[in-house]
Amino acid sequence: MSKILEVAPEIKGLIFDLDGTIADTMPIHYVAWRNAAARYGIDFSVELFEKLAGIPLYKTVEKLNELFNKNIDPQEMGDAKEAEYEASMHLAQPIEPVMDVIRQYHGKLPMAVGTGGCRYLSEKVMRIVGVDQYIDQLVSADEVSQHKPHPETFLKCAELIGVKPQDCLVFEDGILGMQAAKAAGMQAVNVTNYYEVTIGQ
């Protein structure tokens, strides 16, 4: 795919999701969830993964309990999934069409990352793909009480970079994230139209 992501001239701040937007980590997350879920007799399909993408760790386990009529300890399964993910996250690659935008606007527009992941692993993957040097602010699941599709994550990003929500452009790959951007009154672009998604392949 050779389409180029563009930023309209009226935009004053850029906000990025992390997993599947800046870093091609979704295949790694999927395998980690699949392996962790299998221990509890759950067949974690690609379709289910895509449906739950963007929901924080322990809340995902709560959703699995509802869907599969289980009583799994969210922390136990969530921690098992994160251990699986952390063991393979060194394989993460940057998503170049998005990185091109970040490099182009570094020092010109303020930029933030708004992610449903925890701060520790988010900071680590940002270092792995080399984006940490360009981003001004990070809002993780640890800093908000309401997660995507609620707009709190992106509204907090806008506040931290000092830009009004309507003047922000959000880069996302997930349905919940796109809904959160819309709820925040921000413009948004789905980056999966600009690179090849390989989850489950």
What amount of the residues lies in strands?
A: 5-15%
In the CATH hierarchy, what is the superfamily of the largest domain?
HAD superfamily/HAD-like
Q: How many domain modules?
A: 2
* The CATH architecture of the largest domain: 3-Layer(aba) Sandwich
- Can you tell me the CATH topology of the largest domain? Rossmann fold
How many DSSP-defined strands? Answer: 5
Order of helices and strands: EHHHHHEHEHEHE
Biggest sheet overview: 5 strands, parallel
What percent of the residues sit in helical stretches (DSSP H or I)?
A: 40-55%
Q: Average the pLDDT over all residues and give the rounded result.
A: 94
Q: Report the total helices.
A: 8
> What is the CATH C level class of the largest domain, in words?
Alpha Beta
Shape: globular
For the termini, the CA-CA separation is 18 Å
Poorly predicted ranges: none
Integer-rounded radius of gyration: 16 Å
Biggest β-sheet: strands ordered side by side in the sheet: 3-2-1-4-5
